[in-house]
Specification:
18-stranded mixed beta sheet; mainly beta; 18 strands; 334 residues; 5 helices; elongated; single chain
Amino acid sequence: TLDKAEVALIHDEKMRIDAEGTLLDVPFKLGASGGSFNQILTGEPWPIEISADGGGARLHVKGAMAGSGDSAGANLNMDLSGKNIGGLAAWLGASPSEKLSYALNGKLILTGQNWEMNSLSAHLGKTKLKGQLGWKPGDHHPLLTAKLRLENVDPAELGSMVANAETPKKESGAEGFTFDMPIMPQTVKFDDADIDIGINRIQLRKFDMTSVSLTSRIRDGWVEKSPFQATVKDVRFKGELSLDLRSKVPEFKFKIDSSKVDIGMLLAGLNIAEGIDADVGSFGLDLFIKGSNLRTILDQSEFAARMKDGNWTIRDPNTNARLQIRILECVVKA
């Protein structure tokens, strides 16, 4: 709902826009200033500055729109920050009680329909990343490019963002011009993408996963055998993944292999099982996930764990007696 708006565009004075209202029941303020109307008519470069506040977030954009004779469309510096991501619950679907701080800044370059986000730096709580993004519409298929380096990822902290319940909806008032709309899309579709992701550290419950890397090339909604690797407790895992986005029901295949793996440590760190004393000489995991929501994923997904040259020790908690089982080769499927 737009409650108040003022616009000033005079031929030889700076353009100015001020607006106040609510978006999905969250109050916001918007202010913008730029070059004069005369600069637009003469095709001169046009300075612009935008400030917005809402949900505890502060957005500041400053730069210039190119002149009529310049092929570049715009060159903008963007800064977004806030102390509590829960303040954006109505827009992002995060838990309203979440207190993670966040920030994003970078240099946005617009050229025709193409855009680039360079010198990208962002954090959400303890999760931090740097890199660059790009988008080219192309003649037939748009191309997304992403080169990201994450210094740290905290899955438990990010998981706490999920809202426990939907934000209650309020009835719209009778006053003002209403244009409420979802901020985040329900689906994101892209056919072509070049992805290069490196993660220095992923904080799990019992241990850290380090030196994670993934390089992927998506064409026509299809990813075939993208290399993946990660290190867990000095054990190197290598594998590949495939992703099919060509149908309404996405399919994901993941395969990794390693040697000399402490299975008990791995399961405890992933919060799957505790107190298992088992290790194997070689370990492999084949994972097949199919579905677009949690229910279909649980119904249609499969996995197979391949193990060779292993030992499994079972202990009696009362007598501390031990039973050792030797595993020459086995496959666990579900």
